Fold this sequence. Notes:
By secondary structure, the chain is mainly alpha-helical. 61% of the residues lie in helices and 5% in strands.
Amino acid sequence: VLQARPRGPQEAFGRGLSGGLSMAGIAFLILLVRGSLSDFCDLHQDSLLFVLGPGVGCLLAGVWGAVVGELTWRLGRGAWFAAFVSLLGPLGSAVVSALLVYFTPAVFAFDPFVGYFSGALYDTVIDLRPLLSYRAASLATLFAAFVVSSSLERGANGRSLQWSMAAPAGLRWAGGLAMLASLGSVALGPTLGHWQTRATIQETLTESTAVGRCHVLHASRLKPEDAKRFARDCDAHARAIESWLATPQHDPITVYYFSNAAEKRRLMGAARTSVAKPWRRELYVHDMGYPHPVIGHELVHALAAWMGRGPFRVAGRLGGWLPNPGLIEGLAVAASEPRGKLTATEWAGAMEQRKILPPVEDLFSLRFLLKSSATAYTAAGAFVQFVRDAHGATTIKKWYGGGALPALVDRSWPELDKAFRASLANVKLSTAAVAQAKARFEQPGILSRSCPHRNDRWLAEAQAALADGDITRGQRKFRQVLASEPASRAARIGVARCLAQSSEAQAAVYVERLIEDKGTDALLKRSAYELKGDVALREGRAKDARAAYDRAQALTTNEARLRTLEVKAFYAADNIARPALLALLVGTTTAGPRRTEALDRIGVWRTRQPQDGMPAYLLARQHFFEGDYRLAAERLDEALKGQLPVASVRKEVARLTMLSACALQNETRLRAAHKSYLGSGALGTAEKLRAAARLARCLPPPSVDSPVAGASASTGSATPPAASAAPTR
């Protein structure tokens, strides 16, 4: 704030504050006009974010301008000096925030002029509580600055400043307390969630477990055997990935293993998003059960760092300063084992059949971010696998290291695109896979969605209300989402579930409308048929339930969903089994599934039908997902001694037996279960690759390449779809 004649410090402070307030008001007015011409996402929430972010930031900027003006006057400098020093404040603050993100595990940053940077693209629901405390400290800083300006006066020469006792003592005391609060907020930053470092995070993750390549930091509440099991699995993943990448072994990878998503959000800023920082050789994941579903994907990012360039050690242009997200994520999908029933190549084949496969050149540019995460990750992973199969691991390394792929393989992007699509013509797919491809991969990307933060917040609130039995509030929130995103699959089926717990008649009508609607995609139709079957199952209409479940099965490739549908259909007319399945999988008209009641009813079923292996299998699943692998193994043996009339359940028993044997390091049982799994029925390529990879990871470190490394089919999977897994970066 420059002036022709010297003004008092208090007046300069006031002019700076009013200038900042004016700028904030103008910016807010522009936002209001822009919103009124289109549509406000959430006027209350957005206004709050503006006030807490750039709103308070403008006030601080105005006061900073007053300080710069005073400094300029005292030094006798001109406007160019004032402009330069003024910019140093915001730019310097931004640089400090960026350095904290770069040199610490955190992906978030708080900034006095900007407010808050969340850092996790796919975490659309933001917790504002740390920002509230941060801005409380900002206001304390402003008040302290006001008191200081009120306690200063100019000397006789007009340039010097001297302390004045004119300000009331109470005001000076209040200013001192405000200054202490401001400084205290910096010192208490980790507690308040304003910043974190490795040291502060390790105050929670106090324990460490190292196996081979993986050094795991975790909380003391994690059992030592569970930590060791996770570290062993991590190391085995690393060995398989290095074999796929054809890379030598390097330094260990540090894995921050948080207890849950909330703890991960609090300590490093990402909740549902798993993150890797290749330049730090660190991963940040939370407990998602055993075996961990995304640890392999994140390990690829860290292990590929030696091939990457620039400060982030990733693939990209301009020496790695401009990352190539398609190649970064495509490599991670291709080099990690598949997670679903189909490989990335098979899903890409389904996309090609539906004519929705993006041009490959788009996938390896910033246009990658405009696609839905499911589409972009899967298609990029399939193409990277295609390049490796056709041109070898050396080409992948050169491409990731900055080489232009067309120059490396002497083929233009259009020629590569044509060859890739031609290779997909040989992929054999089920009707259900092709039907699902449109629904699975035609969803808009996060940057193309309307108001994703507000809608995802409403969706989370609706699902929480439904889980708590507040049907009215849940249905209201689901319908709010639909008013903004009419095609929201989660919201449409959420409304149906709410109706099913309040009025089965209304639910039946709504579900029929979903089924008959030509705009209903395959995944939503599958959910509608399943819900229709659930209503019939509750009412004891076994024939109708089976018919609906059969229709749902024809529309899904998800192995777990198929198995659930088959079990419910098979036991629909069994008056002993049906109450247990209702309590475990369906719920009643007044509440959702109830685990305690389900366990009690499974016990009754097990006693009254001892020849049926299904109750023991259901108990084994409960024990397995609670981490009691020894008891799970006992119940699985019991299930195998009984009758297992559902083929998919026999296959799942073999798979769980293999996993529990791996967890218990029982090699004999593991090999027998693996053999049984391979003979349990028709397995897809992804299932065979996953079983081979599991066997290799559970056995002692091999002296040759793991089976996954030698596989010619794609071993990638689309990690990010929110319906199946936490997105990764």
